[in-house]
Write a structure and sequence with these properties.
With 121 residues, this protein is an alpha/beta fold. The protein has a single domain, classed as Response regulator (Rossmann fold), CATH 3.40.50.2300. 42% of the residues lie in helices and 20% in strands. It contains five helices and five strands. Strands 2-1-3-4-5 form a five-stranded parallel β-sheet, sandwiched between helices. It is globular and about 35 Å long. This is Response regulator receiver domain-containing protein. It comes from Acetobacteroides hydrogenigenes. Keywords: Phosphoprotein.
Length: 121
């Protein structure tokens, strides 16, 4: 049974890149924003891990991560945050909120794959 990865990002190029690269190893679902991702999960779709951008419309990464971590059903799903900001304060904030990792864009998809693999091990 393939592990399920949910990728949430408003940049179509990132969704396409990660879907293409990660689908060699995982069942990948992509969503353009946190609001749609949460609705999808509330319909009973539970990913094994979530990769989510921070800057998104409708519901940003802060709000999305807060919703995940405050939910009884979803709080144990590991979340990797993606950000265009290389900022220690931001990284600390998200790790404090419960993110398991923080990856700065642009990134190497192989590195992200290895981070996912290690979190799912």
């Amino acid at each position: 049974m393939m592990k399920k990865v949910l990728v949430v990002d408003d940049e179509a190029t990132i969704l396409k890149l990660l879907s293409h690269y990660l689908s060699k190893y995982y069942s990948v679902t992509t969503m353009p924003d946190g609001r749609q991702a949460l609705l999808w999960m509330q319909e009973g779709n539970i990913p094994d891990i979530i990769v989510a951008d921070i800057q998104m419309p409708y519901m940003d990464g802060d709000e999305f991560l807060s919703q995940i971590k405050s939910s009884g059903f979803f709080k144990n799903i590991p979340v990797i945050m993606l950000s265009a900001l290389e900022n220690s304060g931001e990284r600390i904030k998200f790790l404090r909120m419960g993110a398991r990792d923080y990856v700065v864009k642009p990134f190497n998809p192989e590195e992200l794959y290895l981070r996912i693999k290690n979190l799912l091990a």
